[in-house]
């Protein structure tokens, strides 16, 4: 008789708790909705960690067309390009709702990564996960329909699959922004959002958007 193995839940490293306890020199900065955190071309002098709220990362080409690269939420780092030799920001970061950030100077971040192995491991793991996410985004853009791309984007924005639970309400994200993120038109986004709502995959509550895990069926459907 085979004895059933009990799954052991390994605790996730809490970057916020570490930053609060390890004497890391940083400051907390609050941003209002639509306020720029940094602009494309500005000096890359620090790294940010999202405590609460949401951040849009975008780039603008020479003719002024904007492309949304990512929407970040609590627990995400960004602005780390300066640690890899970038002297200026490659894009713009904007708060999409009331947002609180921990801002860590580049040199301080480098010191902590060398001195504190637990934090270094957490940060490396985060960066590797984000690289995988970028690859998945590229595959999504190349091979999936706009409906699947929208469903996947909404699930990611809702933090689906992250500990402890997905957020119940999304930060207010416009259909124009969603269209930029998945590479389609606003009218197509509007069509699919109405379809998802009628099927019970999403729900509008008090100006916010609730995403249900049943939306995953759209992503998995062949």
- For the record, the CATH class of the largest domain is Mainly Beta
| SS-based class | alpha+beta
What's the structural domain tally? 2
Q: If strands are numbered along the chain, what order do they take across the biggest sheet?
A: 1-8-3-6
Characterize the biggest β-sheet: 4 strands, antiparallel
Q: Give the proportion of residues in helices.
A: 25-40%
Could you tell me the mean pLDDT? 83
Helix tally equals 7
What Rg is obtained from the alpha carbons, in whole angstroms?
Answer: 19 Å
Low-pLDDT runs of 5+ residues are 1-11
**CATH architecture annotation of the largest domain:** Sandwich
Distance linking N and C termini: 39 Å
Q: Any idea what the shape is?
A: globular
Count every beta strand, where a strand is a DSSP E run of 2 or more residues.
10
Beta-strand residue fraction: 15-25%
Any overview of this molecule?
The chain is an alpha+beta fold. It has seven helices and ten strands. The chain has helices at residues 15-21, 106-115, 117-143, 146-157, 175-182, 186-198, 216-220; strands at 26-31, 36-38, 46-52, 55-60, 66-72, 77-78, 92-95, 99-105, 202-205, 208-211. The strands form three sheets. Strands 1-8-3-6 form a four-stranded antiparallel β-sheet. Strands 2-7-4-5 form a four-stranded antiparallel β-sheet. It has a two-stranded antiparallel sheet with strand order 9-10. The longest helix has 27 residues, at 117-143. It starts with 14 loop residues before the first helix and ends with a helix.
